Amino acid sequence: MNEKKSSPYSLCSLCGRSCGIDRSGGERGFCGMGPELRIAWAGIHRGEEPVICGAGGSGAVFFSGCTLQCFFCQNRQISRDGMGREVSIPDFADICLSLRDRGAENINLVTGGHFLPSIARGIALARRRGLGLPVVWNSSGYDGPGAVEALADFVDVFVPDLKTLDGALASALFGAPDYPGTVRNALTRMAAARPLSFSGDSLRSGLIVRHLVLPGLMDNTREVLAWFSENLKDRALISVMFQYTPMEGIENAAAGLPGSWSRRVSRAEYHETLRLLDLFHIQEGFIQEPPGLESLTPDFSRAASFPGNLAEPVWFHRGTAAS
Q1: Which domain holds residue 107?
Q2: N or C: which terminus of the chain carries fewer CB neighbours within 10 A?
Q3: What is the DSSP letter of 308?
């Protein structure tokens, strides 16, 4: 009798939580997802770092679910509420090829760590069918053991978050006290796997570390930038963001937690961040514009999910790319 082939979603350990549950058998992990790829939106995104967007924009694919599910997430419709549609691996490959045909500079995989085995198969299929674009891995940095090595087989550019290096804060914000150790290990491996390499003004290989400055938590930003300076400054680019936007009901969600969640980052915090970058001699990277009144929060219930001219839909979970 032949043994049944084990699914990569059995005893799942794809993220740092290593839930160990059988997603292939109908269980749901912390990410909220089963074994089938689930996608909410794909299109040409022009709001990423300039070396990612290039002239044609980044071919972004937003996956449903998340291994952190931060209560302040701007993408909560898909990260926490699971908005999206299940797609087959051939359909995912088709989406990647459609992005290429629309002029995308790369294939930008957003928060897909809990689908890593299926994504790898889909990219391999797309490449057999002619996809030649670089692949960007856009993640929380909370990748499980062995994930970076598996990703290095098909990812050219890593763009992980570095949210915090404070275990107590990580526990309070997203229930992952081991996040600091996990993300330090992942980022160090990513930098070693993909040295910085450019083609003109576009990044073809390398690591961009994103850090979202949170209001009232400047000590957290200081610790993150100090670590980056000591460990990655000459091997990676930093991208500092100020786009935190308070959501309705955030005061209740953040009750008792450190931080000032009912407001945006202040001008004083913005200038303090600039001072810290100078203090730690961090010169290579990107700084988001000072916070304003506009919202960058997407609405994934609409095909035109992003505000302004930030993005152009190519595929949408409700079956049409028209708003």
Answers
A1: 31-316
A2: N
A3: T
At residue 175, what is the residue type?
G
For helices 89-101 and 116-128, give the axis angle rounded to 10 degrees.
Answer: 60
3 in any annotated domain: no
| pLDDT tens digits, 244-254 | 999 888 989 89
Q: What pLDDT digit, counting tens, does each position of 287-311 carry?
A: 998 766 667 789 999 999 999 889 9
Could you give the CA distance from residue 163 to residue 93 in angstroms, rounded to a whole number? 31
What does the H/E/C string look like for 8-74? CCCCCCCECCCCCCCHHHCCCCCCCCCCCCEEEEEEEECCCCHHHHCCCCEEEEEECCCCCCCCCCC
Residue 144 covered by a domain: yes
Token pair 């450019």: residue: 198
Helices within the chain (DSSP H only): 50-53, 76-79, 89-101, 116-128, 147-151, 167-174, 179-193, 218-231, 250-253, 267-279
Number of domains into which the chain is organized: 1
CATH code for the domain in which residue 246 is found: 3.20.20.70
